[in-house]
Design brief:
With 302 residues, the protein is α+β, with helices and mostly antiparallel strands. The chain has 13 helices and ten strands. Bound molecules: glutamine. Pfam families: Glutaminase.
């Protein structure tokens, strides 16, 4: 079965069930999206491409941006990073505060919000303008020079981002932020508000399918690419990561905008988008689509 016919079949199965789940409304601007949207795109290492539905429509990538900022931090400060952030699954919600106090301000992993705030702090210290740096990086990886932040989303999150502010100030109290928490939060909210389509995300994540290399050279080393894929498998979908590995069996990263990117090292990068979320903040139809993709294609790292 070709990737195109697999995506067509998944679309046919899922379309009548939409909308599924609940759109994230704790960031009010995210709730303005049509909850019936559904798109998928896949790129493979031989240059193949297939897509379906709303694959070319841009959406708020939210926590998917954490893979890009982690990649940037690993490129510039790999050793320092792992003294300040752990590599274990958290078993708690992505925006949880409880673990942080018990564990002395060292977040469990770079994909929960606390971990991403530390990663953002590292990027700020090393690259200066973290907002420009991430936008440039996403443009280069995707080949789309007009990728940009949705400033309404960034502003909407900043105005009500009390929980993230609490995390940032708490991290600062433990000495695990170098920059002012407000500066870190501003960069973090913008990073989450980057707008990209499934097609652009699938293309951008190809360096993780190609052992660190993309079409214009090395992004990171092959061992760093392996490390990021491992972290996505163990922490990329938060406290649903066990069920996700069980049913899909691919490293993946989700965001509360409803996007999920999954990678099969050596084979392909796949992105799905549908805005309705389950209780853990992962796209409900998107998770189902990935589960169906793994079943129909027989592709999994296991
Ligand atoms: N911007 C969101 C937040 O910080 C990102 C969360 C997510 O996508 N899981 O709450």
């Amino acid at each position: 079965m070709s990737y195109q016919s697999i995506l067509d079949q998944i679309h046919e199965e899922i379309a009548p069930t939409l909308p599924q789940g609940r759109i994230a409304d704790y960031i009010p601007q995210l709730a303005c999206v049509d909850e019936r949207k559904f798109g998928m795109a896949i790129c493979d290492v031989d240059g193949g491409y297939a897509s379906v539905g709303d694959a070319d429509e841009r959406f708020s990538i939210q926590s998917i941006s954490k893979v890009f900022t982690l990649t940037q931090a690993m490129r510039t400060a790999d050793a320092q990073l792992w003294r300040r952030v752990g590599r274990e699954p958290s078993g708690t919600a992505f925006n949880s505060l409880v673990q942080l106090e018990f564990e002395n301000g060292i977040p469990r992993n770079p994909f929960i919000n606390a971990g991403a705030l530390v990663v953002t702090d590292i990027v700020l210290s090393h690259l200066g303008d973290a907002k420009a740096a991430l936008r440039e990086f996403a443009r280069r990886l995707s080949g789309a020079s007009d990728i940009d932040y949705d400033l309404r989303v960034a502003d909407s999150e900043a105005r009500l981002g009390y929980r993230n502010a609490a995390l940032a100030y708490f991290l600062k109290s433990f000495g695990n932020l170098e920059n002012h928490p407000d500066q870190v939060l501003d960069a973090y909210f913008h990073h989450c508000a980057l707008s990209m389509s499934c097609a652009e995300l699938a293309r951008s994540f190809m360096y993780l399918a190609r052992h660190g290399i993309n079409s214009d050279g090395a992004v990171i080393s092959s061992s760093q690419a392996k490390a990021i894929n491992s972290l996505m498998l163990t922490s990329g979908t938060y406290d649903a990561v066990g069920a996700f590995a069980y049913s899909v069996g691919l490293p993946a990263k989700s965001g509360v905008g409803g996007g999920i990117v999954a990678v099969m090292p050596g084979q392909f990068s796949l992105c799905v988008w549908s805005p309705g979320l389950d209780g853990r903040g992962n796209s409900m139809a998107g998770s189902l689509a990935l589960e169906r993709f793994a079943a129909l294609s027989g592709q999994s790292i296991f």
